[in-house]
Specification:
Blueprint lengths: L1 E5 L3 H13 L3 E5 L2 H10 L4 E5 L7 H9 L6 E5 L4 H9 L4 E4 L4 H16 L5 E4 L2 E4 L4 E4 L2 E3 L3 H12 L5 E2 H8 L11 H12 L4 E4 L3 E4 L2
Parallel strand pairs: 1-2, 1-3, 3-4, 4-5
Antiparallel strand pairs: 6-7, 7-8, 8-9, 10-12, 11-12
This protein binds calcium ion.
């Protein structure tokens, strides 16, 4: 999953990016509203963490502009706790909001929830054959036995599982698994697929030559 964090406060921005990357998300960042809107319109993010008070273009204006074209799930961060502001945020198209200061644990849980709602998956656990994928804990197991994956391998498995039965093109994988700072070496999709096959079983992910990959197709 690839996320965009729009936050002008440098310490908070890097704290959020670090915490989210630690969970296996690819993370792009923007430090003002204009840059944030540009990135949000350019890429299909799985979710956006959006600060309310931003230079150049405030969060709520960014959100209104984005909503003319895209349904990307948006979690708004606000220092305000007034009911009117909450209403403005939710009416403006926010999927959820969090009042500063907040705990990272809560931000992660709320993000997972808005992403889950957007994918139409109602349970945290996706079961494919004898493989269980826990999208809350970010773990994969076979018949209850844990399989150790790297954060990126997990992200690959989750992305394919959320789109089970559908062909996922290499371009979609690149767009959702890697962020703007990733170097080319870490971008080798084939290597990650091959490593996942070694750990989960060679039949779990099917290759469609020249097109992409599919799980449970
Ligand atoms: Ca701010």
């Amino acid at each position: 999953m690839r996320l965009l964090v729009v936050e002008d406060e440098p310490d908070l921005q890097s704290l959020l990016a670090r915490a989210l990357r630690g969970q296996g998300y690819a993370v792009d960042t923007a430090a003002d509203g204009e840059q944030g809107l540009y990135k949000a319109q350019t890429w299909d993010y799985d979710a956006i963490v959006l600060d309310w008070m931003l230079p150049k273009l405030d969060g709520i204006s960014l959100l209104r502009e984005l909503r003319r074209k895209k349904k990307t799930p948006v979690l708004v961060l606000t220092a305000r706790d007034a009911t009117d502001d909450r209403v403005v945020g939710l009416d403006g198209g926010a999927d959820d909001y969090l009042v500063k200061p907040f705990e990272i644990k809560e931000l992660l849980a709320r993000l997972r929830a808005i992403i889950r709602r957007s994918t139409g998956i109602t349970s945290n656990v996706i079961v494919i054959g004898d493989i269980q994928i826990d999208t809350g804990a970010h773990t994969v197991s076979r018949n209850g036995e844990a399989i150790t994956l790297t954060a990126r391998e997990y992200a690959l498995v989750e992305l394919l599982a959320l789109r089970r039965g559908k062909l996922v093109t290499r371009q979609v994988l690149y767009d959702h698994l890697f962020d703007e700072n990733d170097d080319t070496l870490s971008n080798l999709i084939e290597v990650h697929v091959s490593n996942v096959r070694k750990k989960i079983g060679k039949d779990f992910i099917s290759t469609r030559r020249g097109a992409g990959y599919i799980v449970d197709g």
